[in-house]
Amino acid sequence: MRSTLLASAAVALTAVSAIDTISVKGAKFFTESGDQFYVKGIAYQLVPDDPLVDNTQCKLDSNLMKSIGTNSIRVYHVDPSANHDDCMKTFADAGIYIWLDLDTFDTQIEQTHPQWNQTQLDRFGAVMDAFHQYDNLAGFFVGNEVLTTDNGSVAAPYVKAAARDLKAYRDKKKYRNIPIGYSAADIATLRPMLQNYLACGDNTSEALDFYSLNAYSWCGDSGFQQSGYADLIKNVTNVGYNIPIFLSETGCIKPRPRDWADQEAIFGDDMAEHWSGSIVYEWINEANEYGIVSYGAKVDPASPGAPPDGYPRSGTPSPCPRVPQPQLQMEDAQPHRREGLELQSYAYAAALSRFHERHLAG
């Protein structure tokens, strides 16, 4: 009996440890195995309250995500009192990490009347308590687009204070060193000052572990210079940026088609040396039309059992129809490599292209 229990425990331990944790080394992310990690993600807030509690749905979605090479999802809201074991394991089994916002609908830091208090810390901490145990929890965000205007910079110290306190909370609880960062709106008048301010300081316990940006400037037939992505690189290289930086939302959809050329730049020679990938916005197609999959035709929100906005949010995900097919062709591109590091991100950009070419052309 004892040997059976020990064997079962060993199997369970193997299952839990099947995916490397992610950590920060200088200005890069690395896996436990020593490989540099590039975020190849999709924003995934399937339902408003918590998309990580329905394992049947998690399996359906993770299978399709895995088929296009996704290694990350971003989740904006969860219920820390719910059980997330099954969904987190499902995504781990698919090789997919979760980047999770700590705030809830009523605890986020606001730029108009910024504050950071014990109540907010406790609520943020409750989310951390619920998710720190999962090896595929890649990182936490302490805020999303808190600063959205020129004079919104008054809220920056509150964001930095939140990161400081959550890092202290993490360390006091003896959790693993899960990266803690911020997701910023792309406000030209605030960058690069904001990203520098949140990363600076002689004491690393008071600075972010990573910084990310929600950028929608690569639209239509654009390019590295025209889109402003070249400036994003300069903002990093001019100061020798000291923490990882990546795009936490990206994907301009007008004018059509959405051709994924921005991904070619992000994972190519222009940016891969200094940026750590991107999260495409978004998974489910809603009224904003950013989604890449749907769960059926929109229905009348007033009909019995209909979702509030009329967009079904469960079932088998199907690629959304789009007009003309994307132009991104990455099959012949050579992977960007550095000594001791293995980068397969080109393959992800290619998979996104093929996904649309096969399913979304109309």
UniProtKB/TrEMBL annotation:
Its main location: membrane. One of its GO terms (molecular function) is 1,3-beta-glucanosyltransferase activity. GO terms for cellular component: plasma membrane; side of membrane. It is a lipid-anchor; GPI-anchor. Residues 1-18 form the signal peptide. Belongs to the glycosyl hydrolase 72 family. This is 1,3-beta-glucanosyltransferase. The lineage of its organism: Eukaryota, Fungi, Dikarya, Ascomycota, Pezizomycotina.
